[in-house]
Amino acid sequence: MTDIHDLRSYLAVLESAGQLARIGRPVSLDHELADVAATLERAGGPAPLFEHVVAADRGGGPVAAWPVFSSSVANQMRAALALGCAKGQVVEVMGRALDPANAVPPVRVADAGWQANVITGDAVDIRTLPIPIHAAGDGGAFITGGVTVSKDPVSGRGNLSYNRMQVRGPREFGFNLNEWRHTMQFLKHQEALGQPLPVAIAIGLDPAISIAAGARYDGDELCIAGAIRGEGVKVCRGVTVDIDIPAEAEIVIEGYLAPGERRGEGALAEFHGYFGEIWESPVFHVTAVCWRDEPIFQTIIPGWNEHVYVGNVLPREPLLLKF
Asked: Rounded to whole angstroms, how far apart are CA atoms 212 and 85?
């Protein structure tokens, strides 16, 4: 058990351990932020919290000057802090959390902090969110650190995953979705019926949820986060979607994947450190943007340590040990 229950409490733990760098000078969302964060990762430095981000108007008005956090779980030390254990116990703790026998289901609550500020419909313009353009070779601004929250349209079970999302307009993202993802299975089921798939994107999270979202799991990945914390994750119904969303997220973006709609999306650096090609990907139509008072945006630097650690190390080391 730890005192971590959201991003803010995790930042306090990181700061106490000397694993947080508060960066007060102005930093551009276009390339500079990701360059600084990647340099810190490469040098073994602390996780950066950029307290003063700047960006040019991207067509929707002034970009929100919310703080941006990166590199949440980018090494073994931070993984141990996130899991509430010693560095040498990370694989053991992850192994227990990934065992379905230890699953702790989420707990639904009536209210969420991110309901404090809600914009819906035509008033939404995602171009005003502080979404970084990470590298010069990127196709544009991408959400990389948001966790996709969806629901199996057949069984009703919840699901967490990561999907890169490219800003394509005021209320539209390109939504990269691999064939083997559960979310793709859900979308294909809905497409066969000619119906959209509701989804939500939760940004700024307890790292237990971020870690859980990187796992391939046949149940609801929120049960992994519950197993890590020893208690059920609080969830709240969306404003425009019938989905249970982590109640202590900083920012929530709601919407749907339209059936049969595909458009070019990319390029972006992949976990192996090279740029991927442009993919014909589903399109995410935004119906609501919600956020806590004084929210913190969260990103993962594509192709760097956290990208590899969350998606390829933490969920797989226990499997390798078992084999």
From this structure: 16
